Amino acid sequence: MPIYDYRCNDCDKTFELLIRSSSVPVCPTCGSQQLEKLLSNPVARGQTANLISRARSQAAREGHFSNYKASERPRKGRS
Q: Which distant-in-sequence residues (6+ apart) come within 8 Å of 21 by Cβ?
């Protein structure tokens, strides 16, 4: 199911919804069905690798490696 950006014509709120194509979207604030589908901003090209690298660095600083593949996790020294 894709995520779509909507703007409510009644309360002028902007929000994202994860919906099926057969579902009718409803504003989570006022319950209106008078919505306008907006164009989503795409991720800037080349930013994904940088974001992953920063997230992994932060995880390492915090002492957990949950977002690493098993092959990428540091090996613990053997006693």
A: none
